[in-house]
Amino acid sequence: AGAVRAPLSRPAEPPARCVCYGLGRFGRCPAARYQLAFLLLLLDELRGSTGTGGSGGVPPARCALFDPAFSAREAAALRALGLCLLPENEEGKHGVEGAATLFYMVHCGKALYNNLLWSNWSPAALSKLVIIGNSFRGIEERLLSRILERDYSYIAKVLKGVEEVALPSHPRYLDTFNDTSVHWFPLDKLQELSPEVWDFVEEPMYQDCQDLEIIRKGEE
């Protein structure tokens, strides 16, 4: 958690709540258990980083999770930890609604990040996002530019307005947190993007996408 202390201090407003997508079956999978443990450490770190003696930041009750794979026992375990469960599959389309929000999305599909960006497509809203998830730089490097722009246009358009810091690698957790970065969106960088970038706000449909990596609402 100390590795993200500096990146989390850089956004103008520290996160006051958290949304976690795609944690996975932590009752069966050790990697998912490590990711859950890291999430709990992050919430502690955020509470301690506010300088208010732990009275601010993100208490577990303000952290909401969703994964269609959760079993009833896993859902009960999360509630016992004081965390909340989102009532339905949002497909990543979660607006910040004016509150600085940390999105914890380790190893999620590209469409989920793209949907999240679309749902907050304005400088004011994006500047309130912090995303811990797959490196946007890595996505750009691995995808042909025409595929990135066609299927994940909001990721493509925001690349010049995002800052990211990679999580340090650790030999014990190479498969758990590989290719994971902390992303934030400085308001001044977003405002430097051309006005045309913000004019196009069509909802992503992914009709031509061959590798969607997302469970749609109703497919659970």
TrEMBL record:
InterPro entries: SRR1-like (IPR012942), SRR1L (IPR040044). GO terms for cellular component: cytoplasm; nucleus. Signal peptide: none annotated. Residues 12-184 form the SRR1-like domain. It comes from the Eukaryota. PANTHER family: SRR1-LIKE PROTEIN. Belongs to the SRR1 family. This is SRR1L protein. The gene is Srrd.
